[in-house]
């Protein structure tokens, strides 16, 4: 597995544990009502589980496993995927932060924009790798 | 494909079917004038899709396809893999049963079942991550 996939997938595993921990707090609050602050974590829970865990694991695995190019950078432009990693994760944190601050609509929008750029970089790099093996 | 992966994948497909049927029921509530208590199944629907289907499918495929841990233990600890399977599904089923009942007719027993559900799913996630971490490596 390439180094970049290791970054993506290990980060996804960290988010999995974080997302499950927050989810457990929210569910336990539903049952016991002893963790009232848990509901404030719901937007972060959704953000983490969707973008941090699922999306990030998919990107890391796709970068590793899609058909490779025959030339130098076999998995496409690594710099593009590095920027995808930083952009996606910055976006996740900005979006999470916005859910704790008042009047933070612009922060949320910035976060979404960063996530979008991260996903766009991934799509751009993956597009040309989606082809039959015989075409290599 | 290892046995634990087959269990993860087939269970995920069963949850997909259940989620779809539940989604249909939720969509039918307003037009057919069904009991409003059905709305309490909304979070159950989302978690059947996201935990029961998506996450469980990922767990199964990861256990199967990721780089081997060692020659002796290619898929890491079988005990951890099976424990995460049992705990994840026990937790999810507890949630499916207890959450709508607790919303419509709260009682301590349902509340504590939700706490148990939260704990078992949380432990399942940690066990899976711990078992997978050493297999995510550069070659």
What does this protein structure show overall?
The complex is a heterodimer of chains A (136) and B (139). Chain A is an all-alpha fold and 136 residues long. Chain A is 72% helix and 0% strand. Chain A has 4 helices and no strands. The longest helix of chain A has 30 residues, at 3-32. Chain A is elongated, with a radius of gyration of 17 Å. With 139 residues, chain B is an all-alpha fold. Chain B has 4 helices and no strands. In chain B, α1 runs antiparallel to α2, α2 (42-65) packs antiparallel against α3 (78-104) and α3 (78-104) runs antiparallel to α4. The longest helix of chain B has 30 residues, at 3-32. The relative contact order of chain B is 0.14. The chains are: A mainly alpha (136), B mainly alpha (139). Chain A binds chain B through residues 1-3, 5-6, 9-10, 13-14, 16-17, 19-21, 23-28, 30-33, 49, 53-54, 57, 65, and chain B through 50, 54-55, 58, 62, 65-67, 95, 98-99, 102, 110-115, 117-119, 121-122, 124-126, 128-129, 132-133, 136-139.
Topology:
The complex is a heterodimer of chains A (136) and B (139).
Chain A: H1 3-32, H2 42-65, H3 78-98, H4 105-127
Helix pairs in contact in A: 1-2, 2-3, 3-4
Chain B: H1 3-32, H2 42-65, H3 78-104, H4 108-132
Helix pairs in contact in B: 1-2, 2-3, 3-4
Describe what is shown at a glance.
With 136 residues, chain A is mainly alpha-helical. Helix content of chain A is 72%, strand content 0%.
Which features would summarize this protein structure in a list?
heterodimer; A: 136 residues; mainly alpha; 4 helices; 0% strand; elongated; B: 139 residues; 76% helix
Count of helical regions of chain A? 4
Largest sheet of chain A: none
Taken as a percent bin, the fraction of beta residues of chain A is under 5%
Which two protein chains have the largest interface (Cβ within 8 Å of the partner's Cβ), and how many residues from each? A-B, 29 and 34 residues
> Based on helices, strands and strand pairing, what is the structural class of chain B?
mainly alpha
Pick out the low-confidence regions of chain B. none
């Amino acid at each position: 597995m390439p180094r970049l996939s290791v970054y993506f997938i290990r980060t996804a595993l960290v988010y999995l544990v974080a997302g499950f921990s927050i989810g457990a707090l929210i569910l336990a609050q539903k049952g016991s009502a002893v963790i009232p602050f848990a509901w404030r974590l719901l937007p972060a829970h959704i953000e983490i589980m969707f973008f941090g865990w699922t999306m990030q694991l998919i990107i890391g695995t796709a970068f590793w496993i899609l058909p490779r190019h025959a030339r130098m950078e076999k998995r496409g432009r690594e710099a593009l995927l590095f920027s995808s990693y930083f952009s996606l994760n910055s976006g996740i944190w900005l979006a999470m932060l916005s859910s704790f601050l008042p009047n933070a609509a612009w922060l949320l929008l910035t976060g979404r924009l960063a996530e979008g750029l991260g996903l766009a970089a991934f799509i751009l790099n993956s597009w040309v790798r989606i082809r039959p093996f015989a075409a290599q | 494909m290892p046995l634990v992966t087959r269990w993860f994948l087939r269970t995920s497909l069963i949850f997909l079917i259940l989620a779809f049927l539940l989604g249909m029921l939720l969509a039918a509530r307003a037009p057919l004038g069904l009991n409003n208590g059905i709305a309490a199944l909304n979070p159950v629907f989302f978690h059947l899709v996201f935990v029961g289907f998506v996450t469980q499918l990922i767990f199964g495929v990861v256990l199967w396809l990721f780089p081997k841990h060692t020659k002796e233990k290619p898929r890491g600890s079988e005990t951890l893999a099976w424990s995460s399977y049992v705990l994840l599904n026990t937790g999810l089923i507890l949630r499916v049963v207890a959450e709508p009942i607790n919303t419509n007719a709260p009682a301590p027993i349902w509340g504590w079942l939700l706490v148990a559900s939260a704990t078992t799913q949380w432990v399942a996630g940690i066990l899976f991550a711990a078992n997978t971490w050493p297999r995510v490596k550069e070659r």
